[in-house]
Structures are given as C-alpha cells and as structure tokens.
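User: For my dataset I need records formatted as: sequence, then structure tokens, nothing else. Please produce one.
Assistant:
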Amino acid sequence: MPTSTSLVSMAGRDFVLIDLSQPLKLNVEVYPGDPKPQRTVFSEIKKTGWEHYIHQTGDHNFQPHADGPNHQNPEMSGRGVESWGKDYVFNQAGMIDLSDAEEAKMFGGISYLARVTKKHLQIYELMLQRLKAVIIRTGYDKLIEINRPHVPENLPYLEKEAADYINSFDNIRVVGIDSITVDPPGTHTAHQILKNKMIVESLVHLGDIPADKRNDFYLQTNLIKIEGATGGPVAATAWIAG
C-alpha cells in the first residue's frame, strides 16, 4: 500500500483514504521569481522552555493550494480565499487522467501532458454532468513529488476552450489539477473563466487513485482560510468506498 494511503471505517462503511497533499518544505520549488518559505526561531526551547517558529511563505507555495477569487480577477478584489464556503469542502468527484495521452511528452525525464484541450475532456462528458468536483491529472504530479524546479513554458495548462468547457458545467464546484497553475506564463484566461469555481492546484499522489475508481470517489478539500489572501493551503484527500 502506498504511503499516501490509509484505511478508515465511518458510518458502517470502509474507505480507502489517499492523501493528495504533501508537507510544505523550506526548499520547495516555487514558480520562478516567487519567494521561497523562510523560518525563523521566535522562542528557543533551551532558553524559554518552549519552541516557537515564525514561518513566512507565499500563499501559493503549498502543495496543494486553492486560489482565491481575487487571485487574477481585479473585479473580485474584495473576495479572498476565505470566501469559499462549506459547499467546497466535500464533494463527489472524478479524475480525468491524461498522463498517458498521445500528446504527452518527456520533459526532464518525466512524461506529462502540457496542453489540456477541450478534445481531451469531451469524452468524459457523462461523468462531468454528475459530479461536483473534477481533478485533471496531466502527470505533472510526478515532478512536484520529487521537487523538481519548474520551467514556466513547460507547465501544464488549460486551453481557453477547455476552461470554457469545464465552466459550462454549473454542477462542478471544485476544479483540481496537478500543475502549479491553470494558465500559461503571462496569461490569466483560465483563472478568469473559472473564477466562480474553486481552483485547487499542485495536487500530488494522483497516481495512487485506482484506475477503476477514478470516476467515483469523494474529494475532501479542507482549506485553511486566510482572510484576504489570494490563495491558501488545502488538505486534500480522496475518499474511495471499499
């Protein structure tokens, strides 16, 4: 059993839980130019009897993290990440795994799909019609898991038509992806199209979700709500009924 996986019984049912998150590391690879986390000692246990650290980090450094509506939408400047309510915490979900798509290419020894098109998504229409959350796996989670540096021009993203297609499903509340962004460098199109859905980026361990369960599980996305922040850390878990 992968280390990301555990078993739990709840309400008379057995579930396999898959942790789609990983701890924030001080040496985490971030979008080039973004600040890396820093930790300073506020109180040293040998001197005061208690240990206390201060962490400074960007609100998009977490793996995964959710974007606030104000992240790339100027007209929503008053809506920080705390505005995502309880409807975004636990939802019926499915995963579209494109890591083995014909167009996937090798980047630094790891194969993933860099450009997600509407065509890639359309064959999952029946699944999308009944879900509240969808995860798009490009294969980039393998790169995040080994903390490889990010090359902006090689990051997976959603084409405008793909973002429009997902946005057409009013039932979908949460859009997850294993890339650190849904847009190519210097653009904000997908973020703006999906501004009314909670975008969760940098999901990991997606390969641990069994192939026969990828269209039928629950996605838990517990968000740490930082008032006014443009992003915030998410504890993401896939719940798979036994």
